[in-house]
Amino acid sequence: MTLKETSAMALIAFNPPVDQGRCTANGAVRGGLLSRARRRQGRILAGAGLALLPWLGYLAGTLPPAEATAWVTLDALEAVALLTAGLRILRADPRHRAPAGAAAVLLLADACIDLATAAPGPELATATAMAVAAELPLAAVCAWLATRPMRAVERPGT
pLDDT (tens digit, 9 = 90+) per residue, 60-81? Predict the structure, then answer.
């Protein structure tokens, strides 16, 4: 089984049936529609979590064993937090806030450690680009989501 098939199976397993945009799982938006922005945010978080999976393999294969263990563990925790928060948002589950907060802290720590341990030159430029373009904006989104409860969008005709 390929990584792509495994990832698809995981997404299917964690997403309950949806009936025309209404989530049938328990959640704060029961009977309402999940807003387009929230669906997009959930997809971004889940997609970022999935994108980290091949990165874990790359790190494990290219770094010395002692360093690989630390970085793979940190990035695996980020992936779990992002996937959990994203999938809970897509299911309209109000319990998305804790994993979103954890993801924000982990991403911020990852960016700080990357910048602090990077050698001057191309390595520092890469760490800075990753922090500015990916880790810090994603941490900000996660922090924002961790402080915001889910709200239902009124269904047309009700």
Answer: 999 999 899 999 999 999 999 9
Whether the model clears a pTM of 0.90, i.e. scores above it, the answer is no
Whole-number pLDDT of residue 25: 47
Kindly calculate the radius of gyration of the chain based on its CA atoms and give it in whole angstroms.
17
Which residue is listed with tokens 């999938």? 87
At residue 46's C-alpha, the angle toward residues 40 and 51, to 5°, is 120
Residues 85 and 101 sit within 8 Å (Cβ to Cβ): no
Distance CA 148, CA 47 (A): 20
Alpha carbon of 139 to those of 65, 91, 107, 142: distances in Å?
Answer: 28, 21, 6, 5
CB-based contacts of 83: which residues, under 8 Å, 6+ apart? Answer: 10, 14, 45, 46, 49, 50
pLDDT, one tens digit per residue, over 85-116 is 999 999 988 899 999 999 999 999 999 999 99
Q: Are 121 and 150 in contact (CB under 8 A)?
A: no
